[in-house]
Amino acid sequence: MFRFVSTEILFGLLLVPALGAFFWRTRQARKRALSLFGDLALVQKLSVTLNRKGRTAKSALTLLSVGLLVLALARPQFGTRVETVRSEGQDVMVVLDVSRSMLAEDVAPNRLERARLEIMRILQRLDGDRIGLVAFAGNAFVQSPLTVDYGAAAMFLNAMDTNLIPNQGTNLGEALTVALDAFEEGTRDQRVLVVVTDGEDHEGEIEAALERALDEGVQIHTVGIGSLDGVPIPEFTASGERSGFIRDDRGAVVTTRLDESTLQRVAETTGGRYFPALGAGANLDPLIEEITAGEGRELETREITLFDEQFQIFLGLAMLLLLVEGLIPERRRKKEAWAGRFS
Fold this sequence. Notes:
Elements: E1 2-4, H1 15-37, H2 40-46, H3 52-73, E2 76-89, E3 91-97, H4 111-125, E4 130-136, E5 140-147, H5 150-158, H6 172-182, E6 191-197, H7 206-216, E7 219-225, E8 231-232, E9 234-236, E10 242-245, E11 255-256, H8 260-269, E12 274-277, H9 285-292, E13 297-309, H10 311-327
Parallel strand pairs: 3-4, 3-6, 6-7, 7-12
Antiparallel strand pairs: 1-2, 2-13, 4-5, 8-11, 9-10
């Protein structure tokens, strides 16, 4: 099979007839100039050493060289080979808390924004690993299935906010169950689950999810984002303007604090690690190192057909023709050319 990679370059072949027309017009203009110079027969006798066939050959070689250079730039390919491509990596599911308590500003600019920023940094460090996203509050759902399309995953991540799930609360157990369901069946190795939350579990369904994670060999890392002291939760109007703090039915300001004990237990039970993200400058560098240092498994095997680049042939021929063109003289030697000319 023969093909050109850059087919748009082939429009450059129009240079060949354009140059041909230029050479022809130049030759005709030279003839007209010589006819005006004097008697044409005498002029031809004076220019007997001119190598007219050589000039024609030089023009033809130049045109062929230009055409071959254009073909080389278009990257001709012919000859194929089949290669087996194996992609290796981990399956990483990230579970992000999008409940309203994540709007607390004890982590700059707030818990949710900081969490999305750090997850984005994880995305930027992945190489061949598949990543998926789960959003949860009072309910949980898969925001993005496992994929190696990090651009699409980043787009879904940016869309995760506190308006995504109307049912408020923090159902960590359901979030873990949904994330475990998102892993492919039949795979037990190199599966990592990362939970980013303030840890306040108001629904109490964690135990069953932890038992399942143990049975399926899924390691859970937890990230506790927030402060250990209670902080108020900002409230915003429909237009996005801040209107104060969330209050309970009695009018008291609702506060939220990081529940480290729950997150530590989740991580320790499954052989994972707990990573605290406390303070304004919180970051997840240790977690990123933990994930990227893990060994991957074979995720996909497929055969692809590769074409061999053959531009070298056309480029080499063009260079050879230009070399030959430079060796052809425009004048020829003729010993008797001037003999008796002025006698």
